[in-house]
Structures are given as C-alpha cells and as structure tokens.
Amino acid sequence: MYPALSPGMIGVQLPFDECVKLAAEAGFKGIAVDMAAATADPSGVRQLLEGNKLAPAAWGLPVDFRKDDQTFQAGLASLPGMAKVARQIGAIRCSTWILPFSDTLKFEENFELHKTRLRACAEVLADCDCRLGLEFVGPRTLRENHAHEFLCDQEGMLGLCEAIGTGNVGLLFDCFHWYTSHGTKDDIHKLSDALVVDVHINDAVEGRGPDEQIDGERRLPGETGVIDLKVFLRGLKEIGYTGPVTPEPFSEKLREMAPQDAIRATAEAVMRVWADAGI
Q1: Hey, which bits of 26-137 come out as E strands?
Q2: In the chain, N or C: fewer CB atoms in 10 Å?
Q3: Nearest in space to 32 (alpha carbons), one of 12, 41, 51, 44
C-alpha cells in the first residue's frame, strides 16, 4: 500500500500538473487523478504521473445513483468512456460512498435499489478491468432524525458487495467510519486485498466517543490519537492491502493554508503515522 494525496480532500484547488509536482515533492507515492484532465489528454497524464513517480489513486464514481432514474441513466451513459480513460492511465480503482439512511425508502427497497444500480456501474467498470469501492458511513449522529436506517458498518456493506455479485466490488475503507461503527482489529483481519479497493485515513475529534462524532468534523491523521491508526494501518498491511491510503481530514486549518503548505502539512502527518505503524 502507498500514501496518496487527493488535493480536493484538503481544499487544494490547483491545476493537476501543479498538484502532481507538489505531491511528489512532499513525499506522496500516489495521487487521485483529475479525470477531466485525464479525459482531455490520457497519454499526457500518464506521462506526468510516471515522470513524477506517482501511482494513480482512486477516482470518484461519476454516476449519481441516489436520485431519479433519468439522472442515474444519464450518469451511467457517461461511465464507459471514463472507465476506458481510467484504464488507459492505470487508474483501476473507483469509489463512492453510501448514505446510511433514507427518508423515503425502507431498508429492503433501498438495498434493492443500490444493488441494481451499483451492479450496472460495476459491470461497466469490470469491462475495463476497474474495481468499485463502496464506503459505509459510520457516525450515529448522521443517522439520527431520519426515517429509515441503511447500511452503516463493514458487515452490512460487504453484504451489498456480495449481492452485487460482479466480483470487482469491495470496500472504500475509511478509518473514521471503522472507528465510529465500533470496528475492531479482528474486523480488519476478516478482509483481504480483494475486498478492499480504497482506503481513507484521518483522526477523530478529541473529547467525543464513537457515537458522538460528526461526519464532517475530523482531524489530520494522528493529530488527536483518538483513532488507533497504528492498529488500522498494521491491519491493512497484515491482510496484504496493495492500494492507496489517502488522508481525508476535513480540516479548516488546512483550507486556510497556501496550497503547498497544506500538502506539506498533510504529508508530514501521514508519514508520522506511517512510521509509527512501522510500515
């Protein structure tokens, strides 16, 4: 596995070529690909990554499967072209998140909707040898005051992956959601490289327990020590995970920094927890 940067996740908005250079200088080994740039010039983006010795990390599923069928079908129609470009540049990991509630659909109806629509997406991705990672969202505070709960932990999301049944679907595994869903080291050891497509790391807010954490309020990896990243990262290494590990701290502090400073500060945080875990 390798530390990767997603510029958007830390509020950096620069041209992709500038982000690539800053990520490489900071010590990252991968970067989330700007698919607009890749679509415009696939060979140029591939050369840019190779020239800076960065692997492509995951790209976000561009299909809105949460709304009406017309919106879903329009997004699905654009997916084959994007998947071909992604395969061209070696970005074979695609990921998205799953809302842990619905105000309109009961669990069974919602499960069927997700299974059907995400299967259609996964089949397109499989044609281009790409994988799809699904993120369960753990915070109890996000599910409160909604009519119907939905999948919100590892076991439930793996059940959806299995029901989709295309063989190229696994988890987008975020340590914040692992922590807020009361995940354990044993849960990580139930996984394998084949079941983990993408990984996010961060830290939780101090002074709050797992059930009190708020989804949009997080910290840099290792900043508070609330989440045991040593256990999390070692667990991933022990199951043989080979993909990107991307920080997603939702940090206002980073967003207020100059881009190069934000990237450097993020890299330093990641390298500290990396070293602490002995990876």
Answers
A1: 30-31, 55-56, 59-60, 93-97, 101-102, 131-135
A2: C
A3: 12
For residue 266, give the H/E element and its range.
helix 259-276
Query: Model confidence over 212-239: pLDDT tens digits?
Result: 999 999 999 999 999 999 999 999 999 9
Domains of the chain with CATH codes: 2-276 (3.20.20.150)
Q: Write out the H or E segment, with its range, that includes residue 35.
A: helix 35-40
In this predicted model, what pLDDT tens digit does every residue of 42-90 receive, in sequence order?
A: 999 999 999 999 999 999 999 999 999 999 999 999 999 999 999 999 9
Residue of 245, 276, 267, 269 lying closest to 1 (CA atoms): 245
Based on its alpha-carbon atoms, the radius of gyration of the chain, rounded to whole angstroms, reads: 18
Classify residue 53 as left (phi > 0), alpha (psi -120 to 50) or beta. Answer: left
* Residues 136 and 98 sit within 8 Å (Cβ to Cβ): yes
Beta strand residue intervals within 44-130, DSSP E: 55-56, 59-60, 93-97, 101-102
Question: Residue range 185-193: average pLDDT?
Answer: 98
- Could you tell me the pLDDT band of residue 275, with boundaries at 50, 70 and 90? very high
Residue 2 makes CB contacts below 8 A (sequence gap 6+) with: 29, 30, 55, 243, 244, 245
Statement: the pTM of the whole predicted model exceeds 0.85: yes
